[in-house]
Design brief:
- It is a single chain.
- The protein is α+β, with helices and mostly antiparallel strands.
- It has one domain (13-81): YaeB-like fold, CATH 3.30.2310.
- The chain has helices at residues 9-17, 21-33; strands at 3-4, 43-44, 52-56, 61-68, 73-81.
- A hairpin with a 4-residue loop joins strand 3 (52-56) and strand 4 (61-68).
């Protein structure tokens, strides 16, 4: 199973402010166990060689992350509104 690196303080704050903690944790479990789970709507951003992905938290919010192959883990970079 892929591990999730600790979240940055600003990401914790964003999740809390927007009441997304439970939805985020649910999606993280899917990401760790089955990255192809349909509810994630996983996307690879351009340029593809940078390895930056996003997954859906809900219809409005997405998490942006990278796979840290050296650590065999995932680093969440940001939580954003999907329609910014």
């Amino acid at each position: 199973m892929t591990s999730i690196l600790p979240l940055y303080a600003d990401i914790h704050k964003y999740l809390s402010t927007h009441h997304l903690q439970n939805k985020f944790q649910k999606q993280i479990k899917f990401l760790q166990t089955n990255p192809r789970h349909p509810s994630l709507h996983l996307e690879l951003f351009e340029p593809k060689d940078k390895g930056i992905y996003s997954f859906r938290i809900d219809l409005k919010y997405r998490a942006i992350f990278i796979y840290r192959l050296d650590l065999k883990s995932i680093e969440i970079l940001a939580i954003t509104s999907h329609y910014q």
